């Protein structure tokens, strides 16, 4: 069943059906964490929360979160919801069933192709599960397999404490984060409550970057979604997963950046090496703005994990009213 605004349905379920053992729980948000627990949450998550929950903005909130909060009409967005440990466990169990290592790359790619339709202005598109109506676009070839993950997780959640709490858009975001963690990458906490697109409403076409883009075109494309060059370089590290030749296809690490610095595709003696990476990867180390971040992430995997996590939280908030 497709709901015009499943996010709202999810929130009303939160209020009406979910019970929790936390004695000091905010009664308006059963099933979610307390204010005290929220304040103990990780920095990226807190950044999202401070963009939309009525907690006030912390000084640590990034500019995009502050801008989003300022732009949100007051009282219009009920804000991100943090799953309780019980709900998170049910989500993780369903995600683990649906995402073996062999499906991690497609799960992560699905996130970018759902969220990457965002453009500001006009501010439409984004992570809203509309990818299900865009699967026949050439740039989305191979992603039907990814969307089936979302359907399987949704089905598997029936009868669990998490039923109805995560929208399909949330499941897209959660599946990508689960894939990253399963492959040894960072644990990226995510909030729930993303509304989904109206039935049969694809996002505007022509907003995804193409693999033959120059570095300037890539930067302009990511800037139109609100991303800095640093965030673009950090997100591009997602190509460490999958079959593009950046080390183990199911290991999320900083091999992508180390490989970009070696530029194996320039080795004319090794035809296999020329297969490594996409043209859009090859242009990055030749761009003077991108190169310092590539060098940093190649030398410091923790920095990559930290910056990827923050950019991923932002990616999975694109187009969500009041979030980003
Ligand atoms: C910088 C612009 C980007 C371009 C032009 C681009 C384009 C592509 C292309 C053409 C593929 C190959 C698809 C295939 O094998 O059929 C691919 C794979 C992939 N992309 Fe991107 N991508 C970009 C950024 C991103 C971002 C930001 C993410 C996620 C945060 C991402 C995640 C992935 C993943 C995980 C794969 C491997 C999929 C697999 O092997 O199944 N990409 N990308």
Textual characterization of the structure:
The chain has 324 residues and is mainly alpha-helical. The chain has two domains: 6-205, Peroxidase, domain 1, CATH 1.10.520; 215-310, Peroxidase, domain 2. Helices cover 44% and strands 0% of the residues. The structure holds protoporphyrin IX containing FE (HEM). The site of protoporphyrin IX containing FE has 20 residues, from α6 and α10. Residues 14-27 have a biased composition (Basic and acidic residues).
Count of DSSP strands: 0
The biggest beta sheet reads: none
Which CATH C-level class of the largest domain is it?
Mainly Alpha
Q: Quick check: average pLDDT? A: 82
CATH topology of the largest domain: Peroxidase, domain 1
What radius of gyration results from the CA coordinates?
A: 19 Å
SSE string, helix = H, strand = E?
HHHHHHHHHHHHHH
Shape: globular
| Tally of alpha and pi helices | 14
Spell out which ligands are present: protoporphyrin IX containing FE
**Strand residues, percent:** under 5%
Helix content: 40-55%
How many domains in all? 2
Give the topology.
Layout: H1 6-16, H2 35-39, H3 43-52, H4 63-71, H5 85-98, H6 104-115, H7 144-156, H8 168-182, H9 215-224, H10 229-236, H11 255-262, H12 279-282, H13 291-299, H14 301-315
Bound molecules: protoporphyrin IX containing FE.
List keywords for this structure.
324 residues; mainly alpha; Peroxidase, domain 1; Peroxidase, domain 2; 2 domains; disordered N terminus; binds protoporphyrin IX containing FE
């Amino acid at each position: 069943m497709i709901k015009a605004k499943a996010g709202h349905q999810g929130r009303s379920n939160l209020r009406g059906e979910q019970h929790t053992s936390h004695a000091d729980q905010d009664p308006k948000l059963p099933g979610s964490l307390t204010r005290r627990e929220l304040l103990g949450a990780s920095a990226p998550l807190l950044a999202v929360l401070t963009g939309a929950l009525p907690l006030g903005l912390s000084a640590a909130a990034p500019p995009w979160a502050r801008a989003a909060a300022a732009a949100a009409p007051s009282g219009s967005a009920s804000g991100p919801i943090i799953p309780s440990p019980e709900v998170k466990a049910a989500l993780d169990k369903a995600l683990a069933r649906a995402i073996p290592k062999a499906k991690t790359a497609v799960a992560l790619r699905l996130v970018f192709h759902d969220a990457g339709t965002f453009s500001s202005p006009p501010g439409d598109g984004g992570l809203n599960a509309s990818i299900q109506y865009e699967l026949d676009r050439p740039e989305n070839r191979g992603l039907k397999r990814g969307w089936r993950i979302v359907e399987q997780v949704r089905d598997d959640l029936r009868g669990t404490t998490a039923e109805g709490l995560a929208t399909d858009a949330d499941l897209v975001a959660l599946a990508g984060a689960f894939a990253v963690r399963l492959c040894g990458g960072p644990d990226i906490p995510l909030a729930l409550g993303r509304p989904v697109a109206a039935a049969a409403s694809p996002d505007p076409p022509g907003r995804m970057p193409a693999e033959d883009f120059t570095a300037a075109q890539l930067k302009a494309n990511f800037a139109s979604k609100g991303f800095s060059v640093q965030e673009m370089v950090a997100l591009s590290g997602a190509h460490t997963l999958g079959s593009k030749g950046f080390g183990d296809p199911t290991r999320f690490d900083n091999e992508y950046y180390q490989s970009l610095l070696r530029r194996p595709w320039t080795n004319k003696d090794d035809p296999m090496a020329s297969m490594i990476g996409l043209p859009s990867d090859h242009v990055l180390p030749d761009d003077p703005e991108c190169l310092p971040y590539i060098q940093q992430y190649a030398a410091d995997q923790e920095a990559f994990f930290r910056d990827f996590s923050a950019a991923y939280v932002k990616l999975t908030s694109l187009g969500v009213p009041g979030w980003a």
